[in-house]
């Protein structure tokens, strides 16, 4: 099988050309020090960004009420710009477009809670898996959130990133507002589908306006989503709702859509939402076609997996394969696919050039090992 198609160039709606169809998936590498970029993070991102067209950082919090994990990157202060500049430079030196992912974890802000910060979401609720209270955001809190996303975008521009990606998925704050499970508000920010999608789309529009004012048309705007939210019998939203939100996002003007089918979601490329004859990939491709690029991943471990994805989409994001083998894409390009590292031992894990805390997390029981093939774990 020829894998040449993987390395075809892509052109974004804003005219920016990407060297190939590959994206380094946004993954929290747990390597920041109180939000600041570290030497380990620079080395890790530079090595993994080689031979991909676009590389997205792990999620960076926009204020100190929205920190989910230790070692999470910050874009919440002007003092972050210096480190972010080094990170952007490291990624770009590998030939990839550098994208800073922006996020607020909302109710999932466990580190902020540990630090004594108020934790808020769309509504005041008790969540059985959380050991802290979640307060309802006031109108002023929402106004401040918009400003925080705008300022974080401005910092990304000043730091020299090629773009930002808004984290509207994986149960973070923007998704919480869109979810009927989490959002019980009765004002203009909750209730109907139109009102529930208002906050994520208002954030997107605010970021778009900030880009227009402080940068130029070459600055990239990405939008990452979870296609549906189902908690057993509790439904946050279904794919039809997210398709409607995505239509509005495209109208606002995104350059690419990044559909999260990985993480805690047990999906693959062929997965179909209940009641649909088409897969998630087919449904979203119908929306994005000729409007913006579509990236999807999920269980991409070999070049054959990449080919399967790009036959349905524009590009593919790669996560675990790059963690296991920093030269994964290089080996594909050089026709050395038989040398790709697909499984490693516990001892070898420490030799991959990954940040220390990331390695530690993979070795902890009930952490990340279920998502990566490590014999004996």
UniProtKB/TrEMBL annotation:
The keyword Flavoprotein applies. InterPro entries: Aldolase_TIM (IPR013785), NADH_flavin_oxidoreductase (IPR051799), OxRdtase_FMN_N (IPR001155). Residues 5-339 form the NADH:flavin oxidoreductase/NADH oxidase N-terminal domain. It comes from the Bacteria. Keywords: Flavoprotein, Oxidoreductase. GO terms for molecular function: FMN binding; oxidoreductase activity. PANTHER family: BINDING OXIDOREDUCTASE, PUTATIVE (AFU_ORTHOLOGUE AFUA_2G08260)-RELATED. This is NADH-dependent oxidoreductase.
């Amino acid at each position: 099988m020829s894998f040449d198609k993987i390395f075809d160039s892509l052109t974004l709606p804003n005219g920016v050309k990407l060297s190939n169809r590959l994206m380094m998936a946004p993954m929290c590498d747990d390597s920041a020090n109180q939000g600041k970029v570290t030497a380990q993070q620079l080395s890790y991102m530079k090595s993994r960004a080689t031979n991909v067209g676009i590389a997205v950082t792990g999620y960076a919090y926009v204020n100190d009420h929205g920190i989910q994990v230790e070692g999470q990157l910050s874009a919440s202060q002007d003092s972050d710009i210096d480190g972010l500049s080094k990170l952007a430079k490291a990624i770009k030196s590998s030939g990839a477009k550098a994208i800073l992912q922006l996020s607020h974890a909302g109710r999932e802000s466990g580190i902020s809670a540990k630090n004594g910060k108020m934790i808020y979401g769309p509504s005041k609720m008790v969540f059985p898996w959380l050991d802290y209270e979640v307060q309802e955001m006031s109108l002023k809190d929402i106004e401040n959130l918009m400003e925080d996303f705008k300022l974080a975008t401005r910092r990304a521009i000043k730091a020299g990133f090629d773009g930002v990606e808004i984290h509207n998925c994986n149960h973070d704050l923007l998704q919480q507002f869109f979810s009927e499970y989490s959002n019980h508000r009765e004002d203009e920010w909750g209730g109907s589908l139109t009102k529930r999608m208002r906050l994520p789309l208002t954030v997107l529009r605010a970021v778009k306006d900030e880009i227009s004012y402080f940068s130029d048309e070459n600055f990239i705007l990405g939008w990452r989503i979870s296609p549906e939210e189902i908690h057993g019998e509790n439904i946050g939203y279904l794919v039809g709702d997210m398709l409607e939100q995505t239509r509005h996002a495209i109208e606002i003007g995104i350059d690419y859509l990044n559909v999260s089918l990985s993480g805690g979601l047990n999906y693959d490329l062929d997965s179909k939402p209940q009641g649909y004859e088409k897969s998630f990939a087919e449904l979203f491709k119908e929306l994005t076609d000729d409007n913006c690029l579509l990236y999807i991943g999920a269980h991409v471990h070999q070049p054959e997996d990449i080919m399967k994805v790009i036959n349905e989409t524009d590009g593919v994001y790669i996560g675990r394969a790059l963690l296991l083998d920093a030269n994964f894409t290089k080996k594909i390009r050089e026709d050395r696919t038989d040398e790709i590292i697909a499984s490693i031992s516990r001892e070898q894990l420490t030799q991959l050039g990954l940040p220390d805390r990331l390695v530690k997390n993979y070795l902890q029981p009930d952490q990340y090992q279920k998502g990566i093939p490590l014999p004996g774990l």
